[in-house]
């Protein structure tokens, strides 16, 4: 997880700086928050369907989704205008028209993360031995 975190931080700082050159840092935040939300949804679905916590590459999933959501900006820099079809990249264009902007995306992201933590906590508790059972040491709890 440490390597994932280091890679995520380095790449995200570079992405943020690339947007700051164009005075468009809010674009970075929008697409990052949308990527976090989608990653958490993927993890929640995985937990629900597979009955197990998601794969251990959550931070790489966030990074991959963020880069995917930003793909139209790379096309834009190459001369392609932003267009509605670019919404296939995690709502690339429409995401900027969310009422409340990045504040709303942040609230949604924190809510999604909280929901996932609650679901994961419940799953972990369901996996723990019940109180009153005998543990490996043979001592009754």
Spell out the key features of this protein:
single chain, 141 residues, 65% helix, 4 helices
Provide a short characterization of the protein structure.
The chain is an all-alpha fold and 141 residues long. Helix content is 65%, strand content 0%.
Explain this structure:
The chain has four helices and no strands. It is mostly helical and 141 residues long. The protein has one domain. α1 runs antiparallel to α2 and α1 packs parallel to α3. It is elongated and about 60 Å long.
Could you outline the blueprint of secondary structure elements for this entry?
Elements: H1 2-20, H2 25-50, H3 58-77, H4 101-127
Helix pairs in contact: 1-2, 1-3, 2-3, 2-4
Gyration radius, rounded: 19 Å
Mean pLDDT: 87
Distance between the terminal alpha carbons, to the nearest Å?
A: 34 Å
Number of strands: 0
Shape: elongated
Number of helices: 4
Profile the largest sheet.
none
Number of domains: 1
User: What structural class is derived from the secondary structure elements?
Assistant: mainly alpha
The helix/strand order is HHHH
Helicity level: 55-70%
Unreliable segments (pLDDT under 50, ≥5 consecutive)?
Answer: none
Beta content comes to under 5%
């Amino acid at each position: 997880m440490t390597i994932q975190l280091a890679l995520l931080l380095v790449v995200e700082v570079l992405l943020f700086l690339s947007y700051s050159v164009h005075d468009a840092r809010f674009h970075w935040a929008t697409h990052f928050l949308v990527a976090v939300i989608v990653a958490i949804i993927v993890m929640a679905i995985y937990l629900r369907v597979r009955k197990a916590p998601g794969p251990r590459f959550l931070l790489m999933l966030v990074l991959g989704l963020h880069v995917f959501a930003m793909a139209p900006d790379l096309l834009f820099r190459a001369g392609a205008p932003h267009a509605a079809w670019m919404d296939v990249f995690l709502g690339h264009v429409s995401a900027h028209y969310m009422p409340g902007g990045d504040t709303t995306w942040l609230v949604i992201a924190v809510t999604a993360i909280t929901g996932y933590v609650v679901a994961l906590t419940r799953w972990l508790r369901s996996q723990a031995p019940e109180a009153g059972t005998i543990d490996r040491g043979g001592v009754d709890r």
